[in-house]
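Lecture notes, part 5. Sequence design as translation. It can be helpful to think of inverse folding as translation between two languages: the language of shapes and the language of residues. The source text, in structure tokens, appears below.
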């Protein structure tokens, strides 16, 4: 049996796990990221977290065949440098070379959203499918595309950025600096902003009460909770948000025709209250849906383990 280290690097935590060759997690270990540390020190912390996971599994480094890591960016294949991880203040850093200093086994690095998609495709919500797209609805809109059980990131390994496809021409400014991106309308951050604007226009909304009259306390769960209680303003916010989400996903479906679309991130916990109307909107706005239907729309199953499993499964690619 082969064993792999899978590391999911986030802005807050470093999560590491040991998996077998089937993607089953044997043990996990996590540590704070301490993003303000110098680059070399933080990479040393990442490596140490992986080694601690090995200890937690009752194994030795000599039992490990390879190390995979998901990062909030990607490696430029022309320079072998990590492009830009804003939450770590990294830009064009030699992550691969630095991490390799700490391990004698092969090291693989991939975008974190792509790793999560691979984890769900290998052991989670899309395990029964060869082709799937995963969308994570969080601070931004992360995405991963799986074709024939492998990550697809385009010819230069820097594609598959569904969150930065254009939804509205010359629309709202996105965090990437472009205007009208899908992320600017369908992320959890976008939903929060949409809810705030609606409460400003309709202060009698239950949403205002739920955040204690302080709009800075608004979160992405409040609009759904208020809508479930019959609040008309919240219902309008949620319906418009799902319209945006369906519009963006309809383009993804038209381009790739995956067998399944996996919805992850915090908003996915709304379950059927999100998925049922989303399916109906997709039937209404997706090319040829009446003739050929739409893919399965499912919620992610693995939670935070998806990134660990996907990173470990990079070692089998």
């Amino acid at each position: 049996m082969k064993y792999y280290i899978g590391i999911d690097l986030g802005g807050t935590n470093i999560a590491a796990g040991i998996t077998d060759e089937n993607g089953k997690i044997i043990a996990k270990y996590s540590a704070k990221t301490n993003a303000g540390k110098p680059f070399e020190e933080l990479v040393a912390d990442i490596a140490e977290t992986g080694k601690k996971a090995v200890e937690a599994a009752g194994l030795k480094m000599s039992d490990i065949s390879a190390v995979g890591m998901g990062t909030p960016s990607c490696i430029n294949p022309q320079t072998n440098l990590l492009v830009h991880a804003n939450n770590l203040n990294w830009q064009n850093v030699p992550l691969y070379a630095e991490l390799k200093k700490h391990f004698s086994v092969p090291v693989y690095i991939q975008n974190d959203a792509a790793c999560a998609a691979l984890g769900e495709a290998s052991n989670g919500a899309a395990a029964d499918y060869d082709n799937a797209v995963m969308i994570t609805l969080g601070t931004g809109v992360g995405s991963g595309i799986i074709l024939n059980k492998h990550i697809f990131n385009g010819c230069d390994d820097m594609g598959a950025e569904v969150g930065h496809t254009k939804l509205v021409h010359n629309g709202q400014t996105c965090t990437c600096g472009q205007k009208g991106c899908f992320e600017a309308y369908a992320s959890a951050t976008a939903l929060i902003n949409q809810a705030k604007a609606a409460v400003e226009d309709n202060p009698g909304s239950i949403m205002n009460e739920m955040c204690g009259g302080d709009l800075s306390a608004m979160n992405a769960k409040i609009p759904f909770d208020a809508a479930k209680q019959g609040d008309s303003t919240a219902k309008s916010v949620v319906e418009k948000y799902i319209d945006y989400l369906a519009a963006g996903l309809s383009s993804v479906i038209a381009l790739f025709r995956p067998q399944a679309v996996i919805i992850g991130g915090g908003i996915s916990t709304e379950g059927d209250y999100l998925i049922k109307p989303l399916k109906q909107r997709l039937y209404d706005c997706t090319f040829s849906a009446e003739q050929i239907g739409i893919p399965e729309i499912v919620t992610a199953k693995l939670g935070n383990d998806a990134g660990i499993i996907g990173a470990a499964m990079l070692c089998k690619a």
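The translated text above is only one of many valid answers, since several sequences can fold into similar shapes. The chain has a mean pLDDT of 95.
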